[in-house]
Amino acid sequence: RGTDAAPEIPFAKPDSLTRVYAIASGKGGVGKSSVTANLAVAMAQSGLKVGVIDADIYGFSIPRMLGVSQQPTKVDDMILPPVAHGVKVISIGMFVPPGRPVVWRGPMLHRALEQFLADVYWGDLDVLLLDLPPGTGDIAISVAQLLPNSELVVITTPQVAAAEVAERAGAIAIQTRQRIVGVVENMSWLEQPDGTRLEVFGSGGGAAVADSLSRATGSAVALLGQIPLDMALREAGDGGTPVVATAPESGAARVLAHVAAGL
Ligand code: ADP
């Protein structure tokens, strides 16, 4: 192919059988990467062939959460992604020098994403998950352009302020005509020893985002699940083995497995 020609992206073909989900949030720290990592492993556990692209330039945390320390290898012109917990993983963090900030602008990000999609040997995937940077940046538009069939999953906390910014992340998808699959509320409550729920971050954010995006799109956007605050989830993520693998009976893991089964 000529150097100026757009590389061919198998997932972008109209007859591609791979479902592509972009995981988005309005702001950082709401658990977007934790959700992405766990959905990926839950899907792999159920027998699907799963790939993850970590496109979160500001906080690439997928390799740590999935316990990936290997670098991708290169064979001929293809990049072979490392595999962890049955999931093929490529992260922007694998291509930047450690300890350095990523100061890429939109066009560079677009090009990196294009390469991840075209030059990585993914094989036949059932599902490709993309962990997007928080907010409403250029990369969300690149995803919609490069992967017109991709669908959006919006992550928010129950907090009103978080929900408002999450709605904006969803509004980008409406402009780019991406389908919004649903909303996942994370950090919904902390279960107390007596079984009562302490709503640390308030309540209602997930339902508010789902309602607002339903009205904006004119079709039902569901609240797919509410994930409780759960120490097992945090510890498992820090340890590189997601909670759906280490503690599948925990409250958080059960919700995540349920959401994964519905996608
Ligand atoms: P984001 O990708 O939105 O920036 P992360 O997935 O990196 O967010 O999560 C931020 C931090 O919060 C991480 O340390 C993660 O382990 C923790 N975390 C996320 N969700 C939960 C939860 N439901 N319970 C406990 N800790 C959580």
UniProtKB/TrEMBL annotation:
GO-annotated molecular function: 4 iron, 4 sulfur cluster binding; ATP binding; ATP hydrolysis activity; ATP-dependent FeS chaperone activity; metal ion binding
Q: Which residues bind ATP per the record?
A: 26-33
Keywords in alphabetical order: ATP-binding, Hydrolase, Iron, Iron-sulfur, Metal-binding, Nucleotide-binding
Alphabetical GO biological process terms: iron-sulfur cluster assembly
The domain of life is Bacteria
Query: Which function does this protein serve?
Result: Binds and transfers iron-sulfur (Fe-S) clusters to target apoproteins. Can hydrolyze ATP.
Q: Which family does it belong to?
A: In the C-terminal section; belongs to the Mrp/NBP35 ATP-binding proteins family. Belongs to the Mrp/NBP35 ATP-binding proteins family.
Q: How does it assemble?
A: Homodimer.
Q: From the Swiss-Prot or TrEMBL record, give the protein name.
A: Iron-sulfur cluster carrier protein
Organism the protein comes from: Actinotalea fermentans
Q: What is the lineage of its organism?
A: Bacteria, Bacillati, Actinomycetota, Actinomycetes, Micrococcales
